[in-house]
Amino acid sequence: MSEIADMRVVNLWKRFGRLEVLKGLSLDFPKGAITVVLGPSGCGKSVLLKHLVGLLRPDRGEVWFGPARIDSMPERELGIVRRQIGFLFQQSALFDSLSVRENVAFPLREHGLEDEARIEERVMRVLSLVGMEESRDQMPSELSGGQRKRIALARAIVLEPRVVLYDEPTTGLDPIRAEIINELILKLADTMGITSIVVTHDLVSAFRVADSMVLLNEGQAVLTGTPEEFRQTTNPVVGQFLRGEVSQEELAKIRRHGDHLWAQRP
Ligand SMILES: Nc1ncnc2c1ncn2[C@@H]1O[C@H](COP(=O)(O)OP(=O)(O)OP(=O)(O)O)[C@@H](O)[C@H]1O
Ligand SMILES: [Mg+2]
User: Fold this and answer.
1) CATH of the domain at 17
2) How many H-runs (helices) and E-runs (strands) does the chain carry?
3) Which of 35, 58, 189, 242 is the most exposed place for a label (fewest CB within 10 A)?
4) What's the whole-model pTM score?
5) Whose CA is nearest to atom 1 of ligand 1?
6) DSSP letter string, 141-182
7) pLDDT tens, 120-177?
8) Atom nearest to 44 CA in ligand 1
């Protein structure tokens, strides 16, 4: 694992209306490594990923892709950056009216590849990488959740990206299908040297794939470290998260909200 950052965010701030989501978040994503981003639901993990591909712009702070600063990059230049980043969305987001083959071919056609033989060859290569070549003529509606994730992953890597962002790749899958996805993440990082950023709630998957981990809470990184450092930390917020406990603030919030609802009853 190299320590050169392939992507980085520096002092990132983002609010939606009155909701302050990212509060000065700084993180490095080392080249060729798998970084797992953990954190409670709603803490801004998907928002962070969207900043990394320029789908969201920060209120303040910087987003870097290698030597290029992308937070202030004009939309037309962002196309070149996005071509090098595969994004596996939280909902697999396949096109329901397109076959598996056409779903995977879509980014190639978008980027102007017209040679049908080359398209076929690249589609089949990534489908075989995710073990789904037999499904090439099926429609997304005929596939299970785990199969859909694998097709979405094939589509995310068909342009041979340098970086892949995975948003909850194993959520909602049974342990066997989740393990297939974990192995694919490891294989892609290994064989293609891809820099991987994996957002997940799934602690089994997190510890299985991570070279390094970060826990987000309240818009900042609570801890960055190796899986071993996470296992051994005495940081109470990390401990609570790993044990699946609800924090005292969270409980107080729920109680306040409950009282408020109670007060409103006729
Ligand atoms: N485009 C948007 N407009 C307004 N609010 C948004 C927008 N995108 C995200 N948010 C809010 O920002 C907060 C963080 O959202 P985000 O989707 O990043 O959470 P998350 O950490 O990915 O959660 P989960 O684990 O449930 O996927 C949430 O409160 C969400 O409602
Ligand atoms: Mg999310």
Assistant:
1) 3.40.50.300
2) 10, 10
3) 242
4) 0.89
5) 16
6) GGS-HHHHHHHHHHHHHTT--SEEEEESTTTT--HHHHHHHH
7) 999 999 999 889 999 999 999 999 888 998 999 999 999 999 999 999 999 888 888 8
8) 18
